[in-house]
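Methods, example record. To illustrate the input and output format used throughout this study, we show the complete record for Transmembrane protein 208 homolog. The sequence lines were provided to the predictor; the line carrying structure tokens was produced by it.
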Amino acid sequence: MAKQSDKKIAQENLRYLRNLKQSFLIVNAIYILYQVLYNFNTFTFWLATGYLVTIGITLFLWKQLVTYGSPKFSSDGSVIWPGEDLNSEGLIAYMFDIIYITWFVHITSMFFVWTWYILLVIPSFAIYKIWTFFIKPNFFSGDSAAGSDFQKSKRQKKLEKRQQEGKIKYIR
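The corresponding predicted structure is encoded as:
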């Protein structure tokens, strides 16, 4: 039964990677054909630089996804390793999100130049995650003694109160 799930993950990964490659080629072909051939007079140095930087990031992330998600097959066609599940949460999902946001910006920037600012969502989200999960809890958590009362259960508070009053009964 475990081999069936490996086969399913391998097939899904191959499908995701194939769709990612096709979409990558389509989006970039549309952008290049429109900007370079049709609308070349508005294709400035900064737009070309932005496009090349974002295409470089997208290619890097695509290569990482191919490395993570490519299944390994034996000579008889059975799955040796299905690859990481590309449908999983976490870093892989963030990689897909960055690629999709970049494609969205490429397509919409053909009509509205200001959509390049949408790319600021990516570092803003990263800063938000770093702040909420690392910096704020570790460096700005406040006094630990004051916060400890909120973490104690009612039973613990009750036992501490009895202990301070000296009314603890011992059963033998």
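Annotations derived from this record:
The chain is about 70% helix and 5% strand.
The longest strand covers residues 79-81.
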